[in-house]
Amino acid sequence: MKSMKNTKGSFFEYLLVILAIGAATGIFIPLRSHFAEGQWALIYLMIVVIVGSVSGFGTALLASVLAFLSWNYFLIPPYHTFFVNEPKNIIFLFVFLFVGIIVGFQTAKLRKLAQAKALHEADKLKSTLISSVSHELKTPLAAINATITNILSEEIEWDKEYVRSELETVTDDIKRLGSSINSLLDFSRLETESWRPQKQAYELNEIIGSLSANLPQKDRERLDVRIPEEFPSLLVDFDQFLRLLQNLVENGLRYSEITEKVTVKAIERKNELLLTVEDRGPGIPEEEKKKVFGKFYRGRSSVKGSVGTGLGLAIAAEIVKYHGGKIWIEAILPHGTRMVISIPKTEK
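and the corresponding structure tokens:
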């Protein structure tokens, strides 16, 4: 009886997905001649996000595929056929399907992690995460929509180089989308204590090398590393500590002028190791220095147009805590920020 009940529940969820996509498409059809093809993507993707967060990946995947097929059949000329006469429309459709599947998968993972906590904590975290995911999806999805809609414009015949450049921009926006979702996922894992550190001894240069390899070439050239030759090894979880330093370095790069470097230094003391990440950005006001480590908090300097979840420093603080260390902020004159990490020395 229990398995039958679960089966009925799954069937009901799939039926709701079909009805949701059908209803949305039914609303779009009378308006299809008044809007560009790409403008349906955001609404379809928001349905995928809601389905993934409420039900799971299976139903989110179904929503993505149904939206893909409905869009093709009803909203892209020639109507009422799966034939697409514009190669650019084919690219647009498959970019949408790829983004829809990734968004559905990641949102469903967030849902599972939220369920791992006690019920009242899970409900609170789930609500916050869904709200943040919805907010952070808007910027990259709007950029993807604008770029593809521009390419699909019939008023201008774009050359191949331009189309390639625009599709590379779409790829960057998809990466930004993935980065935002991964930040939410990492913080959920840390909050539910499902990402406990697996500590081993590592050389700091090894971690910095992986960090540098993850950066775009233009940012890699701005990274200034100053580590003493005989600096002791660190007893850390490699993946967590890499994420910690990457968050701090990327923050420094984001808030500094493109001509400025971000400096990583290491200092050995009697019972601790100090790591610093320095930038020459606008700095952090004194009243915000503790607030910036809170989840979803973004300070006044964020108005310069940067995007993100507001979780980078919150994740950093949690990782440092798990390693028995401390993290704090120091000002640099005339302007800039120094993030300082203190962790215990490796026992010999």
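(Above: one complete record from the training split.) Strands lie at 200-202, 223-226, 234-236, 262-268, 272-279, 326-331, 337-344.
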